[in-house]
TrEMBL record:
It holds the Pfam family DUF3471. SUPFAM superfamilies: beta-lactamase/transpeptidase-like. Keywords: Hydrolase, Membrane. It comes from the Bacteria. This is Serine hydrolase. One of its GO terms (molecular function) is hydrolase activity. Residues 47-356 form the Beta-lactamase-related domain. Residues 377-454 form the Peptidase S12 Pab87-related C-terminal domain. The lineage of its organism: Bacteria, Bacillati, Cyanobacteriota, Cyanophyceae, Leptolyngbyales. One of its GO terms (cellular component) is membrane. It is found in: Membrane. InterPro entries: AmpC-like, Beta-lactam-related, Beta-lactam/transpept-like, Peptidase_S12_Pab87-rel_C. Signal peptide: none annotated.
């Protein structure tokens, strides 16, 4: 993941309204040390912005926007933002409701009359991932996924991929993240506005707010200053990310932006002054309200709203969303009580913007955090991996399958891509694709009891339930 900055210590800026110049400079230095450490261990490439209230933002850039041509990331570099797109899709839906063109509680059959089960699913179900619609980007459901996403597709063709599949649960019954729902929201926006999704957002959200570096990346178009996405596959070895036709993500993840534009959006969204030209104050509040619990057992205070997550961190309310799309990773976070906005955009798929954003908030709130540490893989006899092979129950609806593939230990969570686990010891492993470490627990007779997965400060134990996968 990457970082970028243009404001310097000599500028009159502050992370908190009551911070002295001396303590602020210390904190700014701490931020630079933290971000430089990430860049030095090759776990970040991109741009970071920290803004608070009316103070000038702190912005840092790291790494290369294009490695083949040695083009550096700057504050003007644009990045694909993945699922951070969803809050803009949700805002468009609320705007259309304010215009009287749709209703959140109406069945989607009102706007998409040919969609099967459309009379059971409401617009709000789609917004909150409670519709039960299968995930159209799930390789377990669609084995041809990796090849298919490289090909151009119309919006109607995307919907055809999943519309005939049975619902996974009764709409409104539970939360299960589904990009498919936001593809349907894209279709609804186009149906009721008589505009394309890209044109509607440009005309009704981005242009009025002055977000001149944000838009939908139309296939076969060249976007000025758009970074190339990469994956880190070894020690300092970067490859261009797998091709993705940008007709595929739609309103689930198809936008590009800059940290400055995202800060403009976030600070406008949390400004109490009404602006009926985009959204009323009531609609902005509705956009960020907590609606449905995401993980009642592990994170009871984490709720999904309309394209955003609402929870508590550092004893502060937090509104945020992360994004990941081929070669890119992103995080947009806001702490409303302190008017603190943090945007992290990276053109390194294996970066962890969510952790970076959280640690930068910790620095701002003067709470403990850990500097990133490089993991070093050791040589380990692959025959030792066999005892770990099997299925582990991480959450009630999520399992982790451990396999040995071509002499490497791999992990794959339900509905997600597999990734390689590199050994740090006989029982401790790390993943380069994300901020993940795994420790296998052994009983006295050396049989495997389970694994402990650590990511973004969270720790979950998964008992081994079977030796197969």
């Amino acid at each position: 993941m990457t970082t970028a900055l243009i404001t310097h210590p000599s500028n009159n800026i502050s992370l908190a309204t009551d911070v002295s110049t001396e303590s602020f400079l210390e904190r700014l230095n701490e931020i630079d040390i933290y971000l430089n450490t990430y860049a030095e261990i090759k776990q970040f490439s991109g741009t970071v912005l920290i803004a608070q209230g009316s103070h000038p933002p702190i912005t840092r850039s790291y790494g290369l926007a294009n490695r083949e041509h040695q083009v550096a990331n700057t504050v003007f570099t644009k990045f694909r933002i993945g699922s951070v797109t969803k809050q803009f899709t949700a805002a468009a839906i609320l705007q259309l409701q304010e215009k009287g063109l749709l209703e959140l509680q109406a069945p989607i059959s009102t706007y998409l009359p040919d969609y099967p089960e459309g009379d059971r699913i409401t617009v709000e179900h789609l917004l909150t991932h409670t519709a039960g619609i299968p995930e159209y980007l799930n390789p377990e459901i669609f084995p041809d996924l990796l090849e298919w996403i490289r090909q151009p597709s119309t919006l109607a063709q995307l919907v055809e991929r999943f519309q005939a599949l049975p619902l996974e649960f009764e709409p409104g019954e539970t939360f299960r993240y589904s990009n498919s729902g936001y593809v349907l929201l894209t279709q609804i926006i186009e149906a009721v506005s008589n505009q394309t999704y890209a044109d509607y957002l440009q005309t009704n959200i981005f242009d009025p707010l002055g977000m001149n570096d944000t838009g939908y990346e139309m296939p076969q178009t060249v976007i000025a200053n758009l970074a190339q996405g990469y994956v880190l596959v070894g020690d300092g070895v970067y490859l261009q990310a797998a091709p993705l036709d940008m007709s595929i993500p739609q309103g689930a993840g198809g936008l590009y932006s800059t940290t400055a534009d995202l800060a403009t959006w976030t600070q406008w969204l949390h400004n109490e002054q009404p602006d009926a030209t985009v959204l009323s104050a009531a609609a902005k509040t509705m956009l960020m309200q907590p609606v449905v619990q995401m993980e009642p057992e592990t994170s009871p205070d984490m709720f999904y709203g309309y394209g955003m997550v609402a929870d508590t961190r550092f004893d502060q309310p937090r509104v945020h969303h992360n994004g990941g799309i081929s070669g890119f990773a992103s995080s947009l976070v806001h702490y409303p009580e302190d008017s603190l906005t943090i945007a992290v955009l990276s053109n390194l798929e294996t970066a962890v913007p969510a952790r970076i954003a959280e640690d930068l908030a910790a620095i701002s709130f003067q709470t403990p955090y850990e500097l990133p540490q490089p993991h070093e893989a050791i040589d380990l006899d692959p025959s030792l991996y066999e005892k770990y092979v099997g299925t582990y129950q991480l959450l009630p609806e999520m399992q982790v399958m451990i396999q040995v593939v071509e002499g490497e230990l791999t992990a794959q969570a339900t509905g997600q891509d597999a990734f390689v686990l590199y050994p740090m010891s006989e029982t401790d492993f790390f993943a380069q694709v994300a901020d993940i470490t795994v420790t296998f627990s052994l009983s006295e007779d050396k049989t495997v009891k389970g694994l402990t997965l650590r990511q973004l400060g969270q720790e979950l134990f998964a008992p081994k339930v079977t030796d197969s996968y």
